[in-house]
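Propose amino acids for all 807 sites.
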């Protein structure tokens, strides 16, 4: 009896020692599992600091009889697991299951029949028992097994066995001694946490680099080697540029020694919840919790969807310009319509009609045919072969002669595919190859010659009748002077007649404004829709080229970009028809006298700045080709009925072929927004827009034109330089517009953030400027903004402006 009491007392002392050593207080038993204190049902562990919880979890929308042991953020309203134990072996009833320390010292999950469903499966020192081992949930999110007598010697930790998520404090890398890598595996889909087909691991052949893998066998992406000296950490993650700056609340480091190689993300502010995951789509995503929005916000993602192997699955093609990223090939339909509609395309597509593939030469031509797709990047994967051939016809015959041949391509030689077509992509430059997809004849019907002649006669007669009807309608329309487009191209993009535009603008008498590209007039369509019509000057493309450009620009849609409704390309006339913006341009509202009732408040200006940045991000990163605006200024920002900003004239840089030498020198005020590259003659990139945005952001902050502010206030210093000085002095409030009434609604944190972002944008060295995507994230508070360097490089540049242009 005494021996039993003595053993029990030792166990209680051991438990107290663990609590004291890990947490400094014996009051936190709720974060611990022991042999006598298991976890079951609705119970959960909460880490000592309250940041993480562990318990039974059910994937959202999943089957009611599938439960998992998981760790999630305890203070985040959306239950978000960062680690799952039994990913492949869910249990059906948490009430009858238990998580406990087993007799051999391992942490185990037992089902209703008390069989082991999951185990930490580690080697425990000989002689140890469940009375000497405890499991503790730390406030880092790490679940550890440790000896009660020596908690510094952890037996096992969940950080060494991650699922799909890396959180701050977790090493991601490999053990050089054991050769084990703690690889991240995606979920199978958004409702099933079992391991999916995508993973991230350290590159076994290149140090300081990690790989994205498909099906545990095929690498499809790497962000490049870790190199913090470049300022971006990884060249493929520009959003991490700010994280690499000094004094950031985040830090990302790479460690390489004789025992291990790993990457480590740490965070200095423990109240910020941040995680990176490998998504079921095969992309890595960085997310941060925004308390005010009660949601996870994305701050970086890589790679682009079409770069992910099998993102669209088999027998489909990927296009970043379509509303739907993935589209089944002709003759195919989604394998799983439910998952396809939810945005998970990896299941791919399946044939509508099976290939008959008869080997009879006489009937083969009637059974199988080929559908051609132009300008594509050819499929990547196994099962392809090449053969020398004199012509495309030889390739077609060779493919038809083999029942396993699913597609072919000809480019001097034949390429054949015998397995599922994977990673077929639309070529954004329209310079890709053509591929011929094998389909049953029913999917590409071919009429016989006699039938064809009969159908031809019917079509001809129908066409004549239709033509007569159309002629009558056109005459009627002409008499009634109804304003209609001749036809549509793209998505609801109307081609207008010049005389119709003359009529709806009352012969261009109601002028809204003008600029270097031409004048803008107000017009009213027949249905009462008010439009803005810009008469272009200096556009020398022929009608065909102009229409081609319009079809491209007309398919670009974003809430912060002005919508192009139609155009006119008739003779020498080139006009664009836009949606009408009732509140006019930003400069008309921004530089109003403070006595005006409708002057923009600080909150409105700040939201306008964010909206403009989002529109530019779309132009730079989301379009088929990067569109550089080249003329960002308040005059080119329009405000809709709710004062939401719309970037206008974004297609004119493309139309004019980037040749702005003529218009820039005659455009009043524009010279104040030009990046140094324009004067130095170096190549223009999207960072030129970033510079112009920064100059405009100074004006949004102060409600004064940059140079005019310097002339009228504070010893005539150029405003960007003045901003840098005031930031250093901690007096950003002096940079705001001087109207005392306007200062009442100012958020000083937003003001400082906007000032620092603007200073980063106007750096002389374009490599120091952030991307517009990073600007959005910084303004929204998703990324920290560090102290910008002094604007030493911009001073001579500004003096050049003032001296050369007499500003």
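Proposal:
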């Amino acid at each position: 009896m005494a021996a039993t009491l003595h053993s029990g007392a030792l166990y209680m002392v051991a438990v107290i020692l663990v609590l004291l050593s890990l947490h400094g207080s014996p009051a936190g038993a709720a974060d611990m599992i022991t042999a006598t204190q298991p976890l079951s049902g609705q119970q959960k562990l909460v880490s000592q600091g309250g940041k993480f919880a562990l318990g039974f979890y059910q994937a959202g929308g999943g089957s009611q009889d599938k439960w998992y042991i998981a760790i999630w953020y305890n203070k985040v309203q959306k239950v978000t697991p960062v680690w799952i134990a039994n990913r492949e072996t869910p249990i059906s009833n948490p009430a009858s299951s238990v998580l406990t320390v087993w007799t051999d010292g391992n942490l185990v999950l037992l089902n209703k029949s008390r069989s082991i469903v999951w185990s930490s499966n580690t080697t425990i020192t000989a002689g140890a028992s469940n009375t000497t081992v405890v499991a503790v949930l730390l406030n880092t999110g790490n679940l550890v097994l440790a000896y009660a007598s020596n908690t510094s010697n952890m037996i096992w930790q969940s950080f060494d066995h991650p699922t799909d998520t890396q959180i701050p404090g977790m090493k991601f890398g490999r053990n050089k001694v054991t050769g084990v890598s703690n690889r991240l595996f995606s979920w199978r889909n958004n409702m099933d946490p079992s391991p999916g087909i995508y993973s991230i691991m350290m590159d076994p052949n290149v140090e300081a680099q990690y790989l994205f893998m498909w099906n545990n066998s095929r690498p499809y992406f790497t962000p490049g080697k870790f190199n913090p000296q470049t300022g971006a950490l990884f060249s493929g993650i520009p959003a991490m540029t700010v994280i690499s700056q000094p004094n950031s609340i985040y830090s990302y480091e790479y460690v390489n020694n004789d025992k291990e190689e790993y990457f480590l993300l740490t965070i200095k502010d423990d109240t910020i919840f941040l995680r990176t995951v490998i998504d079921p789509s095969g992309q890595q995503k960085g997310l941060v919790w925004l308390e005010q929005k009660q949601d996870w916000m994305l701050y970086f993602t890589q790679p682009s969807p079409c770069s992910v192997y099998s993102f669209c699955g088999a027998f489909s093609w990927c296009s970043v310009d379509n509303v739907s990223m993935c589209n089944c090939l002709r003759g195919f339909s989604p394998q799983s319509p439910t998952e396809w509609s939810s945005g998970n395309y990896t299941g791919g597509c399946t044939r509508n009609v099976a290939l008959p593939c008869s080997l009879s030469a006489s009937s083969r031509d009637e059974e199988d045919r080929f559908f051609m797709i132009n300008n594509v990047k050819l499929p990547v994967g196994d099962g392809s072969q090449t053969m020398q051939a004199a012509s495309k016809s030889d390739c077609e015959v060779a493919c038809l002669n083999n029942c396993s041949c699913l597609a072919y391509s000809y480019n001097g030689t034949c390429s054949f595919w015998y397995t599922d077509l994977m990673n077929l992509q639309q070529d954004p430059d329209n310079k890709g190859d053509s591929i011929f997809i094998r389909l049953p004849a029913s999917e590409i019907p071919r009429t016989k010659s006699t039938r064809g002649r009969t159908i031809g006669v019917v079509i001809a007669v129908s066409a004549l009748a239709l033509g007569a009807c159309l002629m009558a309608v056109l005459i009627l329309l002409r008499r009634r002077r109804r304003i209609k487009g001749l036809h549509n191209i793209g998505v609801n993009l109307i081609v207008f007649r010049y005389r119709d535009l003359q009529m709806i603008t009352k012969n261009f008498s109601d002028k809204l404004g003008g600029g270097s590209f031409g004048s803008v007039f107000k017009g009213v369509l027949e249905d009462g829709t008010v439009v803005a019509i810009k008469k272009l000057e200096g556009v020398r493309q022929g009608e065909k080229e102009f229409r081609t450009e319009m079809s491209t620009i007309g398919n670009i849609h974003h809430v912060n970009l002005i919508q192009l409704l139609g155009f006119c390309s008739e003779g020498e006339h080139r006009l664009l028809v836009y949606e009408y913006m009732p509140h006019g341009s930003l400069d008309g509202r921004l530089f109003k006298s403070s006595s005006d009732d409708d002057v923009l408040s600080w909150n409105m200006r700040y939201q306008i700045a964010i909206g403009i940045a989002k529109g530019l991000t779309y132009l730079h990163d989301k379009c088929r080709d990067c569109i550089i605006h080249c003329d960002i200024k308040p005059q080119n920002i329009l405000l809709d009925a709710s004062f939401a900003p719309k970037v206008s004239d974004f297609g004119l840089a493309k139309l004019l072929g980037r040749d702005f030498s003529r218009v820039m020198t005659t455009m009043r005020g524009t010279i104040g927004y030009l990046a140094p590259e324009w004067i130095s003659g170096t190549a223009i990139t999207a960072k030129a827009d970033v510079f112009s945005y920064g100059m405009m952001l100074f004006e949004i902050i102060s409600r004064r034109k940059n140079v005019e502010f310097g002339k009228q206030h504070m010893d005539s210093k150029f405003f960007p330089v003045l901003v840098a000085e005031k930031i250093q002095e901690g007096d950003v409030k002096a940079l705001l517009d001087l109207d005392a009434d306007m200062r009442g609604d100012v958020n000083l944190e937003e003001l400082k953030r906007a000032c620092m972002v603007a200073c980063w944008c106007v750096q002389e060295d374009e490599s120091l400027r952030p991307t517009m995507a990073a600007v959005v994230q910084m303004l929204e508070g998703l990324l920290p903004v560090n102290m910008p360097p002094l604007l030493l490089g911009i001073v001579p540049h500004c003096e050049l402006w003032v001296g050369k242009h007499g500003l």
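Residues 70 and 165 are 12 Å apart (CA to CA). The longest strand covers residues 192-202.
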